[in-house]
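Field log, afternoon session.

UNIT: design team B
ACTIVITY: writing a sequence onto a fixed backbone
BACKBONE:
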């Protein structure tokens, strides 16, 4: 059985005091949540203080990006070991905003995943098609390219322990969610593709999240789908009440 995983991607929001206020509220509001893994992904500056605040909590910490080199003259970058040092267990890699705004490619995503795994982090690899790609019927083609490129050279055991987030670009921050059926069918495609590459047993272990305008009122239907094991939540994760309702989707 795959344990559901609900992660909040705070993007470029929350100063340190704001981040601490949010996690304190979240700890209280999710204390009764069972059989679900909760992850928060604050901006880099708030990672360590949030990690400290989460010391006695089951909520896990994730970062929003990482660089693939272990150290060196890479101004502005953050290494995998720096993230584990700051208390992270997860790291989001290849978010569509990074692909679209910061030149991230399947090749850089692949390098980052390998480096993250080496450091003991669990990558949350994001994939997803744009509206144009969906409209011309290229969703599976695009997802296949991102999966094949992002996971190239990994071992089956490494892939089995990862998380993949299917985030259709047109559903992010737009209030437009993929229908639960459509989201499930792409997640099913992702799992089948990974089964072909790494074997069915490993593909069955991997957790696949849906992301894109997830809210308290659509989470239950998404989570009821057979291939959706969780959610990567943007806007609705910035508010403790709405994120805790998502976490308690049952
Ligand atoms: P929204 O939930 O704001 O649409 O963002 C989704 C997302 O990009 C999470 O990574």
């Amino acid at each position: 059985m795959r344990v559901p995983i609900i992660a909040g991607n705070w993007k470029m929001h929350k100063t340190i005091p704001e981040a601490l206020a949010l996690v304190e509220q979240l700890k209280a509001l999710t204390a009764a949540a069972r059989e679900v893994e909760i992850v928060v992904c604050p901006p880099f500056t708030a990672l360590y203080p949030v990690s400290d605040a989460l010391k006695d909590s089951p909520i896990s910490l994730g970062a929003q990006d990482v660089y693939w080199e272990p150290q060196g003259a890479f101004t502005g970058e953050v290494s995998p070991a720096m993230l584990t040092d700051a208390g992270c267990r997860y790291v989001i890699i290849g978010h569509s905003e990074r692909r679209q705004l910061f030149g991230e490619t399947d090749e850089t995503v692949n390098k980052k995943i390998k480096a993250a795994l080496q450091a003991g982090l669990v990558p949350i690899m994001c994939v997803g098609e744009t509206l144009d790609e969906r409209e011309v019927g290229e969703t599976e083609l695009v997802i296949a390219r991102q999966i094949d490129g992002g996971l190239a050279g990994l071992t089956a055991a490494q892939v089995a322990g990862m998380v993949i987030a299917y985030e259709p670009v047109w559903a992010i921050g737009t209030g437009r969610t993929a229908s639960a059926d459509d989201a499930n069918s792409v997640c099913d495609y992702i799992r089948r593709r990974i089964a072909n590459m790494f074997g069915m047993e490993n593909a069955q272990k991997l957790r696949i999240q849906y992301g894109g305008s997830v809210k308290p009122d659509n989470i239950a239907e998404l989570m009821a789908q057979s291939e959706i094991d969780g959610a990567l939540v943007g806007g609705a994760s910035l508010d403790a009440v709405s994120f805790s309702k998502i976490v308690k989707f049952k």
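LOG NOTE: Residues 5-247 form a domain with the TIM Barrel fold (CATH 3.20.20.70).
NEXT ACTIVITY: expression trials, pending approval
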